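Write out a record, fold above all:
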Amino acid sequence: MDRFCIITNSVKDEGFCITKKIARYLKEHGKQCTVENIQENTDCIIVLGGDGTLLQAAREVVDKQIPLLGINLGNLGYLAEIDSDSIEQALNHLMLDEYEIENRMMLNGRVFHQETVIAEDIALNDIVISRDGPLRMIRFSNYVNNAFLNDYTADGIIIATPTGSTGYSLSVGGPIISPGAYMMMMTPIAPHTLNTRSVIFGAEDEIIVIIAEGKAKGEAKATAVFDGVINIPMVTGDRIVIQKAPLDTQIVKISNISFLEVLRKKMRG
């Protein structure tokens, strides 16, 4: 790799100190490097911050199909695998083309009000449909490939990718899926019935979640949240159609630390 761009979480890299060191190191080795200015011929985007910063970068640059290398300036991450002590070593591997590219599936969600698409966005981790406003559960009607799946009342529903299976979905009891897999997972949030569990679907399936009429009078209000960043208001009768996005996120993998090893360290707290 010869041409780089750095995207930085300015809160975690105060004064852009680490950003400047990386840019200087690359230029000293005859490479091109820009900061927050992605050129068309960029070979790699170096993301400084953590998993949240990398998620946001993935959403913004997926159309460019440029691989992302995450450098974690906080705790061990699932996506940002390089820590601050291993930066120069990682850069050397990049410059010597000693790396692998992992493709990560993304989700595309379209929100309908009546028959009109009012919003459309993508997510690398998950799309969460949850109640909004007063503290009350919402009734969801769920369909897969236009076939009815189930109805249930809950605080919300998480539709996650394998990458997102270690995020919010895991915290509410969802299973962990190897990040390189291609599938979707539906996990309820605080369901009213005890026998409601996560359901796994194929990558080519289409999931439809409808905000249904509940027992309580009045219009139910909900929100569709893409990767914890984009919030789309929904009301009774609205639906969201979720499918595999046409493009993947490309993650640069350098270290020999496997997903299972990261998982073990996370599980130990």
Remarks:
- The chain has a mean pLDDT of 91.
- The longest strand covers residues 116-123.
